[in-house]
Specification:
mainly beta; five-stranded mixed beta sheet; WD40_repeat_dom_sf; four-stranded antiparallel beta sheet; globular; Methylamine Dehydrogenase, Chain H; 33 strands
Length: 400
């Protein structure tokens, strides 16, 4: 019998503090707030997405060869209504680092994460040739592990992982099935749901507990309903050109947005009338890399990265076919990660990709690639007062 670290009880879903949704302003270009940079030549330290915590206090990212890192939201951004355009770009320093050198496939925050309750502050990760780990977001320590095995009792790696909406279960995508673990029971006890192809992406609906979308490497999406260890097939969606790499449910559960590898189209599925796309949106995705999407909490703004380094924004609340509301060139390399802050008008982006390296070093200069985690202000901006006005105000104040 394996021994695991003591895992805090998470019997009830603990909600984040009640806050108003962020008011985004995508009329102006994004203002860079803070940045963290990693080198990339021999070690290929490119980033693999980024995700805000459910309570919005911190940002999680994975760096190939650089482990997992948690960064805190700068304190001045918790309550400000606007930001000066002259605000200096801050340097992001990890609050917590987990030096996992192995390849990380996927990761997910606990949905009830609340910094006021240490037991809820954790995230999952799945990696190459290893079990699924639950990490402590305060210390970076390993809390416990969940192990899936194949038909010949060999430890199997999960390609995708996510929590159920209430945080009570963990859904893990494997080659021939989806395994479901009870969050409070680490080890190798699980139930299985068979799949035709490898489950490359899994998301759970917040509006309809138990409803899960399973994306596969063969461009299909299956919606299933899970409760009490039993599964019911709801429908199958097919329309993407490649293996599914990113999906997001709308907060009301009526829509599902999906994207796939080497596919320059995002598809919006109307789940009230499943079977055909509601509309299709264009983006640049010319590689097998996972290029993520995100949806604002008010279901209005959909954002996507791109292999061209651009972030595209659509107003998907419009009744007509949505066109690109804004396109921002934020990175010099592939923008693989985008994440909208749940309560503040802050956009997080992650950049980088694998580059073929000349082993003989024929080039005299080493190429410099952008592997950066950035925070951008997408709210109201204040113009800087001109120097003349500042001098007049200072003189008036001194004479008085």
């Amino acid at each position: 019998m394996e021994t695991y670290n003591e895992e805090p009880q998470m019997e009830a879903y603990i909600e984040a503090p009640q806050m108003n949704y962020a008011t985004y302003n995508f009329e102006n270009t994004a203002l860079e707030l803070a940045r963290a940079q990693w080198p990339n030549y021999a070690d290929q330290h490119y980033l693999k997405g980024c995700k805000w915590s459910p309570d919005g206090t911190c940002l999680l990212t994975v760096v190939r060869g650089g482990g997992m890192n948690v960064f805190e939201l700068p304190s001045d951004l918790y309550s400000c209504d606007s930001v000066m355009q002259s605000r200096q770009i801050g340097a992001l320093t990890p609050a917590v680092s987990v030096p996992e050198t192995g390849l990380i496939y996927d990761y997910s925050w606990y949905p009830g994460m609340n910094s006021g309750n240490a037991a809820t502050c954790c995230w999952l990760s799945s990696g190459h040739e290893g079990p699924i780990h639950l990490w402590d977001a305060f210390t970076g320590d390993l809390r416990c592990s969940y192990r899936g095995y194949n038909a010949v009792d060999e430890l199997e790696s999960a390609m995708s992982v996510t929590f159920s909406a209430d945080g009570q279960n963990i859904f893990c995508g494997y080659k021939k099935n989806v395994k479901i673990f009870a969050t409070g029971r680490p080890g190798r006890e699980y139930v299985e749901y068979p799949t035709t192809h490898q489950a490359s992406c899994i998301v759970a609906s917040q509006a309809q507990p138990g409803v899960v979308a399973i994306g596969t490497v063969k461009n299909t999406i299956e919606l299933v309903s899970q409760s009490d260890g039993t599964f019911r097939h709801l429908c199958k969606l097919q329309g993407q050109k490649g293996g599914i790499t990113t999906m997001v449910f709308s907060l009301d559960g009526s829509r599902l947005y999906s994207g796939s590898r080497k596919d320059k189209e995002l598809i919006c599925w109307d789940l009230r009338v499943p079977g055909r796309p509601m509309f299709v949106l264009p983006r640049e995705c010319s590689s097998n890399q996972r290029i993520s999407i995100d949806l604002s909490m008010d279901n209005k703004w959909l954002v996507s990265g791109g292999t061209d380094g651009k972030v595209q924004v659509w107003n998907v609340s419009e009744q007509s076919y949505p066109s690109v509301h804004m396109q921002m060139s934020l990175h010099n390399d592939s923008c693989n990660g985008v994440s909208l802050h749940p309560y503040r008008p802050v956009l997080a982006t992650a950049s980088g990709q694998h580059h073929a390296i000349d082993p003989l070093h024929h080039s005299r200069t080493m190429p410099v690639y952008e592997n950066a985690l950035c925070m951008w202000w997408v709210g109201v901006q204040q113009e800087d007062p001109d120097l003349f006005t500042t001098i007049i105000k200072a003189a008036t104040h001194s004479s008085a």
